[in-house]
User: Which sequence fits this backbone?
């Protein structure tokens, strides 16, 4: 079953990081389930594989890891601990969950990098933390710029979906922790009079959320998903039939089976995203 990378109740940002003197290049791994992760050292002693999940905040460790793997017993929710990623040490609270991305011990959110620039380069297998945006690189390599829209400490990007001549434009949660292509919310589809009944059903399944909760979904064929000028055709998307992913807002979700197809800069200084297709862009979809 796929792992749904969104924490049901979101935590307000409360993370500070130590000063960084240079760009930090960190080996980045992506597995067959579209989980991206890096090695990190928690609380000075424990080396962990952690998913970089832009669909959450702070740090989450699996219950099994908390009980059986750590050399210490951290106090959850209110105490700050050191987390070393690359050569930089960040301060973060710790939360617990039943599930995380395949092959990982937990995950950390985007807000560790507030005020920084995060580059994800899948072609080179690197996650690079920049002090400032390398504007020449972005310009010379012809990255496309998108605006970040924030809701409850999470960021979204505008994208389009199209089926049988009907086009809807909405904000999508930018979620590297969600392992599939895209999750479309039924309420938004109904509001946009999107022809759901004309989408070919590929399969139905039960997914599990971060706390082990069951989420019924339908996988259907979407004729077109467009992010800026980039078009992806015949995408096997998931339709959420219950349990709104964000309390208080209907949204769609872009998952890492789509996002991995782009090298990117996440500019948390100016709230912008820069995307450029990479060597994975034309890979087959897992759900096909």
Assistant:
């Amino acid at each position: 079953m796929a792992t749904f990378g969104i924490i049901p109740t979101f935590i307000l940002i409360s993370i500070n990081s130590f000063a960084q003197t240079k760009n930090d290049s960190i080996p980045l791994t992506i597995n067959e389930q579209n989980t991206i992760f890096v090695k990190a050292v928690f609380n000075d002693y424990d080396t962990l594989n952690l998913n970089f999940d832009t669909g959450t905040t702070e740090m989450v460790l699996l219950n099994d890891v908390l009980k059986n793997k750590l050399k210490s017993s951290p106090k959850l929710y209110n105490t700050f601990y050191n987390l070393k990623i690359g050569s930089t040490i960040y301060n973060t609270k710790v939360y617990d969950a039943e599930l995380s991305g395949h092959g990982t011990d937990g995950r950390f959110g985007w807000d560790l990098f507030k005020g920084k620039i995060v580059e994800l380069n899948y072609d080179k297998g690197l996650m690079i933390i920049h002090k400032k945006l390398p504007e020449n690189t972005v310009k010379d390599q012809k990255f496309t710029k998108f605006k970040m829209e924030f809701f409850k400490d999470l960021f979204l990007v505008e994208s389009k979906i199209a089926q049988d001549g009907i086009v809807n434009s909405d904000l999508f949660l930018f979620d590297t922790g969600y392992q599939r292509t895209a999750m479309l919310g039924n309420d938004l589809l109904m509001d946009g009079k999107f022809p759901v009944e004309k989408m070919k059903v590929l399969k139905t399944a039960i997914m599990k959320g971060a706390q082990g909760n069951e989420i019924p979904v339908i996988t259907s064929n979407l004729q077109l998903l467009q992010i800026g000028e980039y078009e992806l055709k015949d995408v096997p998307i998931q339709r959420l039939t219950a349990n709104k992913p964000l309390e208080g807002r209907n949204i769609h979700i872009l998952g890492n089976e789509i996002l991995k197809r782009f090298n990117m800069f996440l500019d948390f200084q100016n709230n912008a995203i820069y995307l450029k297709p990479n060597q994975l862009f034309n890979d087959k979809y897992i759900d096909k």
Helices lie at 63-68, 135-140, 186-191, 256-259. The CA atoms of residues 58 and 109 lie 5 Å apart. The first helix runs from residue 63 to 68.
